Amino acid sequence: MTDDHLVAERLKKIEELRAKGIEPYPYSFRFTHKAKELHDKYHNLKAEELTEDNASVAGRIVALRRMGKATFMHIMDGSGKIQSYLKLDDMGDNYNLLKQLDMGDFIGVEGKVFKTRTGELTVHAKSVQLLSKSIRPLPEKFHGLTDKELRYRQRYVDLIMNPEVKQAFIKRIEFVKNIRRYLEDRGFLEVETPILEAIPGGADAEPFKTHHNALNTDFFLRISLELAHKRLLVGGFDKIYEIGKVFRNEGMSREHLQEFTLLEFYWTYADYEELMEFIQVFYQTIIQATFGRMTVAFEGKEIDFRGKWPHYDYTELVLEKTAINLDEHPTKESLIKAIEERALKLEIDKTMGRGRIIDQLYKSYVRPTLIQPCFLVDHPIDISPLVKKHRRKPGKVERFQVVIAGSEVGNGYSELNDPVDQKARFLEQEKLYQEGDKEAQRIDNDFINALEIGMPPTAGFGAGIDRLFMIAAGLESIRDTVFFPLMKSHD
Fold first, then answer.
1. Which pLDDT tens digit goes with each residue over 447-484?
2. Which residues of the chain have pLDDT under 50?
3. Could you tell me which residues come within 8 angstroms of residue 154 by beta carbon, excluding any fewer than 6 positions away?
4. What is the pLDDT at residue 225?
């Protein structure tokens, strides 16, 4: 029977119910227990022993077995599943309602709790109430589907049919809670900053653009939280963090989302070396607290978060993997020539500056080789327009990236608070933008004005929570970390 025929049958049942004075979509139902609460309360109940008190539960029918004058159902609520036993002799006319019930319907049942001879906890119902009639049937073999796109598009069905998917999202909720708890226990205050910005800044990314009708002005969806947070540091906040959505109009991949959740925090009077020590313990603590372990199988490799993570020099690793010494190629033209001489496969756009080319070189030849957790430190100044110059290494900045499983899962640095230096670097970025680099940062004169008021020495950090959780949970794709990943419309 096709889905269209099944839908027609269920619509007919709704008409029949209403003809009998039964509302298929009542307004409420008062239950006494969740399924898990009953399992916890009566797990020691003996087989065929009946409780004295009544209990009522509500949920979706996920299994239905009719046997003439008796029916068994499994009801699933937000906490789990429990069986219900319904018998004609006990329920009288109310038992006739079962003829109108189908898989996927929401019902409420009330009765005494007992264990069957096979040891399954069951509500022996004396009454049943339809709470919501499901018109469209659940797919019978949804669990076996390999069509990931369908599961992403119909996440609501995915959650019903695949309990492990729901559990993964519950773990993500715990993960974020543990992040908040860790930071707040150490004196960080949670702040909220605007999503709409007149000038996008704080990262190298192409923004999404929108229009504000009342102001008749174009705005951008934020690509970072950074510049707003630094304004708050100027205003007198010392330790702040935010977990918020950011938007980057870039390509799609296994580890990229155009709308993703970003953690950023700022710690005044600290530097990037102190921050690295903080971050290692931070990651290890939240992973252990969430998953109860410190290793994970990811893409066929075991990732081990334990111990002290190694530090690798950015320039030295590029030299090791590409035979190019970045310090010997201070210009864009010299660097391109070195890449061509070594026949390195790299797509170089004419709009790219030296920093963007270095970044592409690193992402193609270095980052994929870094599997175990590590810190990549002391980046070239060209790719770090918001970072303090290194106090000992000319041409470098005090920056680190956390790299795990060939992916960047954290970025921190000693924040640039010299307004003259910052303005000069913004102007360099603005020039690249005018020459066609859509990801180059724009000059933000109000931010420069804030720095001129004065910002204390600060260490700042940012990490995409979705990607970090994907690796820590051992998930296949970053789309498995969000309920409703953006998809191209069927239309």
1. 999 999 999 999 999 999 999 999 999 999 999 999 99
2. 142-145
3. none
4. 97
Residue 444: what pLDDT? Answer: 93
pLDDT tens-place string over residues 11-54:
999 999 999 999 999 999 999 999 999 999 999 998 888 888 89
The confidence score (pLDDT) of residue 2 equals: 73
Q: What's the confidence (pLDDT) of residue 403?
A: 98
Integer angstrom CA distances of residue 188 from 284, 342, 399, 469: 19, 48, 21, 21
pTM (global) more than 0.70: yes
Structure-derived torsion over alpha carbons of residues 221, 224, 226, 229, reported in degrees to the nearest 10: 50
Per-residue pLDDT tens digits for 139-164: 865 444 457 888 899 999 999 988 89
Q: How far apart are CA 470 and CA 171, in angstroms?
A: 11
- From 186, 201, 280, select the one nearest 239 (Cα to Cα): 186
Q: Which pLDDT score, from 0 to 100, does residue 491 have?
A: 64
Domains of the chain: which residue ranges?
Answer: 3-132, 160-310+372-481
Q: CA-CA distance, 383 to 364, in Å (whole number)? A: 16
CATH topology of domain 160-310+372-481: BirA Bifunctional Protein; domain 2 (3.30.930)
The predicted pLDDT at position 143 comes to 47
Of residues 3, 11, 27, the one with CA closest to residue 100:
11
Q: Regarding the domain delimited by 3-132, which CATH topology (the fold level of the hierarchy) does it fall under?
A: OB fold (Dihydrolipoamide Acetyltransferase, E2P) (2.40.50)
Q: What is the pLDDT of residue 142?
A: 47
